[in-house]
Amino acid sequence: MFGLLLLVCSTLAAVDVNSADAAALESLPGIGPGKAQAILAWREANGPFASLEDLDKVDGIGPSTLANLSGQVSFGKGASPTPASAAAPVAKTAAAPAAAAPADTAGCPVNINTAAADGLQTLPGIGASKAAAIVQHREEHGAFASCDGLDDVNGIGPATLAGLRTCCVVK
Length: 171
What we know:
By secondary structure, the chain is mainly alpha-helical. The protein has helices at residues 2-12, 22-26, 33-46, 63-69, 117-120, 128-141, 158-164, and strands spanning 15-16, 73-74, 110-111, 168-169.
């Protein structure tokens, strides 16, 4: 009986994304091994997550995953991660370029109407899957009138959009 109670309580507890390991992250709805590794890599490269919206910066996590995670995660201080400048290189699929730090503007500006997927990935918060979604949206709907049009792209929300405004152009 105690074991069952312990299992129920642990199931109801929110997962702290700032201290959870891969197995704990994989227990969340919509998070498999790939997304768990992407979360860990982003956290290692950029520091702790402050809110649910911060998870949108992780490659492969979009609005539907965020909706599934609402109420399932918490954002404690977690361990103090190594800053990106001192960390080991992070795999490209883990959205390492997601840090919207002012010093990360070396590849700026990026024209979202002409850049290929690899060029779009130099934008803060844009990894391989979001870059592919931008290209697909552009092919299906035409050129973007402004950078705010990226809000219509699946997987790009207000947090990502705010982070890339310093580099985005639509000439």
